[in-house]
Structures are given as C-alpha cells and as structure tokens.
C-alpha cells in the first residue's frame, strides 16, 4: 500500500517539476538571468521550509505515529499544489511553494514506517523496493505532465497533481495500518540530544550531510533542465514533452537498479554500493554539460538513474541499521531536512551558476560537488575505505 502511495505521490509531485521554470517564464517578462534566478528561488523556497520544519514533524511522528504524518502531508499538498494552477504572478507562486514546504513529508514518513516495521537484515531490500514506487511515479509524472502541458496548459498539471494527492490521502487513511508504540513528550525530553542515543553519532552526521550533497547535485539540474532542453532543441518542437521525458529517464534505470543494489548491499555490504554510486555519478555528470544533442543528454540522464538507485537507498539503509528503532521517525525527519537543504542549495546554486557560466557549468559543478563529498566520506568513515576486506 505504501508502495502505491509513494508511486502516486511521486507521480503527482514530479508532474510539475521539469517545466516549473517554463511556468515561471509565463508569469512575467524576464531576462535570461532573471528567469534562472526566479526559477531557482521558486524551487528553493519549498525546501528551505522543509529543512526547518521536518525535525518538528519527525518528533511528532515518534509521538503520534507515521500514519498521521502521511495524512497531513497528502491532504495539505493536494490543496496547495492545486491552488498553484490559479496564480497570476511569480510571487504568488513562490508563496504557495513556501506553504508546500509546510506540508511535505509523505515519502520520508513512508520510508520511516517501512524501516520501523522491517527486520534490520532485510531493510536494504525493503527500502530499495519502496524506492521503486517513488521512482516509478517520478518516471511517469514528467511524461504525463509534459503531454498535458503541450496539449492543454501547464496550469492543468497543478490541478491534476492535487487530484492525485487527494487519492493518496484516502488510500492512506483507509488501507495503511501501523503497529506503533508511541513515545511520550517526557520520554523524548529525558533522552536529551537525539544524537546521544547513537553508537556512532559521527557516522549519522556524515550520512546526513551526504544526503544533502547528493540531493544538491540532483536539484542543481532541476531548475534548468527544461531551459537546457529548449536550448538544445533551438526552441523548435514539443519542448515540454521532451523535457518531461528527459526528466523521467533516470527513473527507468533507478527502477531496475534500486531493488537489485539494495539486495546486493544486504548480502555484500552497503559500503561497496556507496562507492560504486559515487564514482559512477561523477563520471556521468561531467559530459552532460557538453552535449550538442538532446539524445545524448537523454542517454547520460538515463545513466544517472543507476547512481541514484545506489546512493539514496544505501544512505537510508545505513541510517536504519545504525539507529535505534524508537528514533526511526526522528532520524528520517532529519534525513528529509538535510535532503531539503540539498534541494534548496542545489536550486539556488543551479540558478546562479547557470546565470554566470551558462547551463554547462551546472553539470560540472554537480560532478565536482559529488567528488568532494565522496572524498570526505572516504576520509571520515573508515568502514567505507575497508569495504574490500569485508567483501
């Protein structure tokens, strides 16, 4: 049921993402520099709010249950995203994107629920399977949204997204059940800092920062992907449809790779998968800024999905295996918070770098950032350096 919920949530959310910058362009008359900056801010403001509010929702999830958070998120986002179809200027859109951040959190709470109710030795496989739900939705969403935007109007995609999320709300309310032991406010207060409950708090912090940097790399591309596609197509042809397909391509490979990599990591060690994911991502990001054909861009975006299928589930699995079960909600809320920070910084940096160095600079920046993150992990987490001995 949670797989289906994350599938619909991912589809609804991703319908609008690939061409949100084109929607911004429709809301005013902007220079290229203004458009990239406004697009970056429009993406980033949601994630700034998520970063600030997620720990609060996480503590509430540990007290009241993850199902309640699923209902809060799906209903709130359905209303806010639906209203985006009626805005008349970019500031109204930015305001609604701000409110969207307050209601975000369906997929992280679904992950936390699965992690809490799955045996630890099977968590990698379970989270890998759940990832395919979200990724499958991401795969279909941009294509569906692109077709709707081409045939009708971009505004229709926001209304359709709201309808999909209402469906998620009712499915979650009626068919999702949780075996939950609540943690009282007093018990949380007695625990002191949540990091004190971990055997290896440094590892947890490093993993959270890695989540931020991985997501920063992914989201530095998002604000400019439709504009980059439009440039490669010289403004001729069904730009929104092609942009939707390009945005969806990583989902194909992630859908195939994530469960297999999760299962392999449970058997052979997650560190091996993490090393592969970083190296492969770095090698695939560099060439994307220098392609001259939208077809080549599509091939490299397809390859990026393999690294996504390695990195995100593995980081979540390592967090799960190194966390007390009673703090699962808290850990995943902080993971969402750092992921949101990565989305925010990625959106802002993507807009700024595209303005300064053109679109190609964004892909180079992403590759270099992931390289730095990988080197930090290699330095700070000894078990990653010694994966060969444990293999």
UniProtKB/TrEMBL annotation:
It is a multi-pass membrane protein. It comes from Levilactobacillus namurensis DSM 19117. GO terms for molecular function: transmembrane transporter activity. The chain crosses the membrane at residues 38-57, 69-88, 94-115, 127-147, 153-176, 203-229, 235-258, 270-288, 294-315, 336-357, 363-381. This is Major facilitator superfamily permease. Residues 1-385 form the Major facilitator superfamily (MFS) profile domain. It is found in: Cell membrane. Its main location: membrane. It holds the Pfam family MFS_1. GO terms for cellular component: plasma membrane. It comes from the Bacteria. Keywords: Cell membrane, Membrane, Transmembrane, Transmembrane helix, Transport.
């Amino acid at each position: 049921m949670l797989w289906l919920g994350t599938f619909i949530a991912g589809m609804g959310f991703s319908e609008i993402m690939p061409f949100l910058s084109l929607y911004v362009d429709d809301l005013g008359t902007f220079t290229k520099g203004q458009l990239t900056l406004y697009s970056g801010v429009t993406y980033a403001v949601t994630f700034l709010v998520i970063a600030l509010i997620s720990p609060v929702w996480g503590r509430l999830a540990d007290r009241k249950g993850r199902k309640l958070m699923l209902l809060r998120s799906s209903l709130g986002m359905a209303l806010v995203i639906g209203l985006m179809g009626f805005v008349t200027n970019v500031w109204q859109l930015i305001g609604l994107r701000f409110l969207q951040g307050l209601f975000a959190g369906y997929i992280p709470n679904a992950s936390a629920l699965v992690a809490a109710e799955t045996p630890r030795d099977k968590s990698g496989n379970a989270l890998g399977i759940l990832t395919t739900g979200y990724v499958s939705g991401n795969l279909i969403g941009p294509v569906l949204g692109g077709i709707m935007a081409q045939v009708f109007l971009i505004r229709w995609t926001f209304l359709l997204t709201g309808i999909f999320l209402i469906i998620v709300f009712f499915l979650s309310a009626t068919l999702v059940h949780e075996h939950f032991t609540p943690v009282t406010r007093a018990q949380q207060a007695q625990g002191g800092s949540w990091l004190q409950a971990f055997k290896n708090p440094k590892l947890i912090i490093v993993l959270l920062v890695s989540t931020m940097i991985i997501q920063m790399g992914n989201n530095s591309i998002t604000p400019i992907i439709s504009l980059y596609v439009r440039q490669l197509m010289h403004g001729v042809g069904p730009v929104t449809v092609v942009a939707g397909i390009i945005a969806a391509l990583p989902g194909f490979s992630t859908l195939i790779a994530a469960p297999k990599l999760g299962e392999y990591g449970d058997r052979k060690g997650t560190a091996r998968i993490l090393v592969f994911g970083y190296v492969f991502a770095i090698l695939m990001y560099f060439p994307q800024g220098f392609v001259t054909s939208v077809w080549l861009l599509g091939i490299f975006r397809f390859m990026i999905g393999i690294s996504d299928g390695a990195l995100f589930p593995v980081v979540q699995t390592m967090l799960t295996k190194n966390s007390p079960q009673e703090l699962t909600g808290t850990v995943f809320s902080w993971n969402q918070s750092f992921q949101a920070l990565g989305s925010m910084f990625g959106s802002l940096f993507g807009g700024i770098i595209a303005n300064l160095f053109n679109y190609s600079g964004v892909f180079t920046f992403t590759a270099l950032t992931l390289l730095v993150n990988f080197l930090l992990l290699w330095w700070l987490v000894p078990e990653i350096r010694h994966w060969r001995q444990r293999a």
